[in-house]
């Protein structure tokens, strides 16, 4: 009951701080820009491919090349969505608890018959709802655009969206944990650094797969992924964007690597399990730390 | 503030149970190497208006935060209304005004009252009636729809008082409740505290303002550097430190020796001697004694010491020691 009171209060706060309005305006702008660019580039490419096909040149068939273009454009758009969603999750998490402690507004609230666990859960639920709605609507809009413009069907749309949701929840949970133990600014710096490390780990992991391969780099990449599995989960999501025909075609052409920010192989089950457990673990540690904290 | 709203306070404000409203024993709190509270033992009875008096940094706010479960003690025990304050349910009947009365500035006053009321277990229907009534009572009638950001300091503090009593608590903890108020506002707070007391609500008041405590409190504890220096009913504290000012023809060594047996000489200025005595009852006997010993007694004036004098003496002694 108290959890819901806090959650509703948190959503009211997001509305009052114009977070919702700003989010909606910027999201509409992003989707509109994506749709415009996607449409223009796709039709250009379609034209070029048709002309090339008429001349009988190119390693891939025209259809396959078109598929590659529409896939890469969509992945690029979704990469943008996950990046914005990740930053949103981080910012909301960083702003979730410590500013209320710093301002002193939390003292009167926690002097009520409200446990600290209820407070943290209420905050997390509301913020998770907001970032989840953002990712759901944005990724849904992009997938729909690709379908309408190019007739594109991803490998597994549910897993794409599901894993992107998991990524932002991971970032929200870890930054909320930071917010219960660190001052706001310090937490912001730490979280951005962690996010950067996870991103770099993903790139290193990608580089490690380039023949002849590098085991040390691969291990460093995995370690960064374990520290914060955000980028690893995004790569997992990106794999499911790729239609089977795209994977088959690129494999035939020997282009297994793709761009450095997507994966052409599914997520390792152990990493997926870790990523699924990660938000719950962060919340658990946050509760344990916050319960003992003097305000 | 309107006088009409006081009757709604619950009559069953814990007076019959015999459980103290606040009880602490050997309470200690250290933040790293800094000790904020040394050994705080207090007992506040239901229905009392208790003043917790001390200079800034004496540990008053820390003590109050322990009583609300916001800070965990390093040692000792605290009970509020008979239960440990770290249990959320124990805080159901407690109201609190924090020292800096900072609230979520993006919300309106009425929204804040609603939020705090809900957290204290009140229903929407009950709050719909309670919020306007309370805004009226603290002098914010018609301002409930404005954002707290636009409130003046005094208005925010009034809102804080309304928040503290929204759920009709049995025990109200007020941390420096008049610090931001002008003289009229201070008088209104005193009125409110008296109304609460009349309704049987226990009030625990942190303050460094002696006049405030003198005006409303039944009992006070004077605290400095985390220790209670003196505590008791206000009259006793003031009475215990009664002094007599004696105007004599001379003040020689014999006189001081003579007076030293009847009290404590605290000052000699020329031939005027100030003597601290247990009670004013010694005065007639002392006059006879002085005259009998050959002194000319021109005047004997009882000096009622204010709480401020006691406070400054006690706190000064600690800081010098």
Layout of secondary structure:
The complex is a heterodimer of chains A (295) and B (321).
Chain A: H1 2-16, H2 19-55, H3 62-94, H4 98-103, H5 105-110, H6 116-150, H7 157-181, H8 184-208, H9 215-227, H10 230-241, H11 244-253, H12 269-292
Chain B: E1 22-31, E2 34-44, E3 49-53, H1 60-67, E4 75-80, E5 94-97, H2 109-119, H3 124-137, H4 153-165, E6 171-175, H5 183-198, E7 202-207, H6 210-216, E8 219-224, E9 227-233, H7 234-240, E10 243-248, H8 253-260, E11 264-269, E12 272-276, H9 283-292, E13 297-303, H10 307-320
Parallel strand pairs in B: 3-7, 3-8, 5-6, 6-7
Antiparallel strand pairs in B: 1-2, 1-4, 8-9, 10-12, 10-13, 11-12
Task: Describe the protein in words.
The complex is a heterodimer of chains A (295) and B (321). Chain A is mainly alpha-helical and 295 residues long. Chain A has helices spanning 2-16, 19-55, 62-94, 98-103, 105-110, 116-150, 157-181, 184-208, 215-227, 230-241, 244-253, 269-292. Chain A has one domain (2-292). Chain A contains 12 helices and no strands. In chain A, helix 2 runs antiparallel to helix 3, helix 3 runs parallel beside helix 7 and helix 8 runs antiparallel to helix 9 (215-227). The radius of gyration of chain A is 21 Å and the shape is globular. Chain A starts with a helix and ends with a helix. The mean pLDDT of chain A is 90. Chain B folds into 2 domains: 4-232, P-loop containing nucleotide triphosphate hydrolases (Rossmann fold, 3-Layer(aba) Sandwich); 242-304, Alpha-Beta Plaits. By secondary structure, chain B is an alpha/beta fold. Classes of the chains: A mainly alpha (295), B alpha/beta (321). The interface between A and B is medium-sized, with 25 and 31 residues.
Report a brief summary of the structure:
The complex is a heterodimer of chains A (295) and B (321). With 295 residues, chain A is mainly alpha-helical. Chain A has helices spanning 2-16, 19-55, 62-94, 98-103, 105-110, 116-150, 157-181, 184-208, 215-227, 230-241, 244-253, 269-292.
